[in-house]
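A quick word before the example. In earlier lectures we treated sequence and structure as two separate objects. From today on, think of them as two lines of the same record. Here is Nucleotidyltransferase family protein written that way.
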Amino acid sequence: MPEALPPLRTIHAGLRRTTEALAAELALPSGGTPDWSALEWRLAMAAAAAHGVSPLLERVPGWQHPPWRRFLAAQREHVEQRHRRIVALLHRLDALARDAGITLVPLKGAALHALGLYEAGERPMADIDLLVHADDAPRAAALLRELGYVESFAQWKHQVFKPAAQPPVAALGEHRDTPVNVELHTRIHERLPLAAVDLTATVYPRAPRPGLNAYPSTAALMAHLLLHAAGNLCGRSLRLLHLNDISLLATRMTRRDWEVLWEGIEPPWWAWPPLCLVARYYRHAVPEAVLARLERDCPPLLRARARRWTLSRVSCSELWLHGLAGIEWCRSPGEAARYLYRRVRPTDEARRERADMVRTQLWLQDRSWVTASQLRRIVAWLTRPVPRMDTLYVVRAALQPSLARAEE
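And the structure line, produced from the sequence above:
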């Protein structure tokens, strides 16, 4: 039988404390080893795994706590081995897409690796994200099936494909044997929280060619990273890895590069909150002039909230679920009213999406909370703190060595 967890309030406080320490150490290493309890070191492992920064922290020379160093070294080894599998798969996709005359754009992590911002083993990639023109999506799906993939589920944002014969792996953080899923996108957009911001025209190549294509520019990649981070902020699911990605790419941006944010139909009102958080931890990564201009575009309520955010409050390190997460991103009373209505009466699409998540995600299986009625969920939100299932999953893995297979 698994051991009982410590009190949830103790876990909550420990996750916040260790997450903020991890963020500070990654941005500006101090070299001093924290005076933490055994529980806090385990929670630090959970936070590092959840935020995708274990292998990055391995290269930081400080924090000489032997179990911690072994954990980081093992994570880097797993990520490096998995990265080789991902690179091989991308080469196969490139060759097949060339033969089929299909344009594919590897997104986010794959693009950052291609630019040389990360070495193999430094940055985990949960899956491969690919942008394809909507007209070519059926042929791209057929190409993935040719590689042994089957469709796992589809939602408004993308189609998810998984290897047909590879089961998921229960592990703390990254594991070499975790299947490499592929997410197929026909649009680059986020709901914040209801109205969609669409960057497809910015991200799709100007002169597409068959095979794998890069983003049109560094600026287009930055715009996508910022919108993706904004979507995660809206759902309180930001990761430290997102901030690190943006800070590294920002070092390559010129004044002209930043201007691409204002070349759309409306001002990039969504870009300041993620950049504000980047600037909180990576002090000199973003030009002050860019921050000042974007701050003027940000709606007043969102701007006021974002000024007080810390990573631990807007990420999975915030243990408690927030029933109205993302409402500050609403830009009008009407949108806020529609948001509240959707919280009480979820759409059929939202119900299907939840059912797909329960079916496909290890951390949601056998958890009664996620299959409860919306009424029961609302009553729980109003009467007691409700923990996040994704956070509890990684905490349990960190506290139960038999599940922490990434340390093997």
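Notice the following. The chain has 18 helices and eight strands. We will return to this example when we discuss secondary structure assignment.
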